[in-house]
Design goal:
The protein is built from seven helices and seven strands. With 234 residues, it is α/β, with parallel strands linked by helices. The chain is globular, with a radius of gyration of 17 Å.
């Protein structure tokens, strides 16, 4: 995937990683970037190459409409996501459903809508922004981890299903990153500009997966017994 002269669509572009993805795509020479949000008036961009677009990823009709309006896209970045810190057995079920609707079904709606668009432009690429919690849950984050684990398998399946049309599918799994979503957590965090540069480098190198250091260490232990992966069980 050559970012220079590409046309991208980024979901959840009004803040956090999504905003930085838009900025760095422009820095690398993207011809146009559709920046989407539920409230496009909240988008902070002034560059004329940015096209604001209203998109609620939980609504399949919204996704289909976006694909009609952005029919020149050859790079899709599924970044929109929410985290509500819910236990699965005792948490608020509506908030748990909202996480799955946004983090899994949202990426699915948009990928389904744009797969034919990408095919029409030679295959293009999809980037799915996920988490260390795709591979390991923590107490109090069961619902978010479940949604990201589901998105991981969505990413794997999408890669297989779109291979014949030449679409590169890049899965990005990150540990805690210094964005608005993590503002209340006093823990070590990735620099978001560094991780966005890393994932865009991986895209241009033709890779299928990006893991930061902490996430790579967790994924390497997936074959271990649960007692080794989850110290809480000790």
């Amino acid at each position: 995937m050559d970012i220079a002269h590409s046309t991208a669509l980024v979901t959840g572009a009004n803040r956090g990683i999504g905003r930085i993805v838009v900025e760095q795509l422009l820095e690398r020479g993207a011809r146009r970037v559709y920046a989407t949000a539920r409230r496009p008036e909240s988008l902070p961009f002034t560059d004329p190459r940015v096209v604001p677009l209203r998109l609620d990823v939980t609504d399949g009709a919204h996704a289909a409409s976006a694909a009609e309006q952005a029919g020149d896209v050859d790079l899709l970045v599924n970044n929109a996501g929410i985290a509500s810190a819910q236990n699965l057995l005792t948490g608020d079920l509506e908030r748990i459903r909202a996480e799955m609707e946004t983090n899994f079904f949202g990426a699915l709606h948009v990928s389904r809508a744009f797969a034919p668009v990408l095919a029409a432009h030679g295959g293009g690429a999809i980037i799915n922004i996920m988490s260390l919690l795709s591979f390991r849950t923590f107490p109090g984050n069961g619902s978010y981890a479940a949604s990201k684990a589901a998105e991981w398998q969505l990413t794997n399946s999408t890669r297989l299903e779109l291979a014949a049309q030449g679409t590169q599918v890049l899965g990005v799994h990150l540990a805690s990153t210094d964005t608005d979503m993590m503002a209340g957590w006093d823990i070590p965090k990735n620099d978001p500009r560094q991780v966005v540069a890393m994932l865009l480098d991986a895209l241009e190198a033709g890779r299928s997966e990006v893991l930061d250091t902490d996430t790579a260490a967790i994924k390497a232990r997936l074959a271990s017994p649960p007692e080794q992966l989850y110290a809480e069980l000790g």
